[in-house]
Task: inverse folding
């Protein structure tokens, strides 16, 4: 994967939701709230977002 790949909307909202410490379900709820319901994360999207390199965003 390209090291300069575009930031997806889902990852953008995940990062924004981490301003405050949150667990997975809290991240999903906050993402939906911030996007006014436009972005709804599933567990696979949330935990797959960091990519194959590991949990570092």
Result:
């Amino acid at each position: 994967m390209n090291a300069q790949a575009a930031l997806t909307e889902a990852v953008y909202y995940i990062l924004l939701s981490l301003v405050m410490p949150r667990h997975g379900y809290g991240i999903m709820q906050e993402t939906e709230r911030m996007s006014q319901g436009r972005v709804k994360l599933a567990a696979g999207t949330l935990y797959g977002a960091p990519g194959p390199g590991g949990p570092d965003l």
User: Anything to note?
Assistant: The helical segments are 9-17, 24-34, 43-48. The two ends are 14 Å apart (CA to CA). The chain has three helices and no strands. Residues 13 and 45 are 12 Å apart (CA to CA).
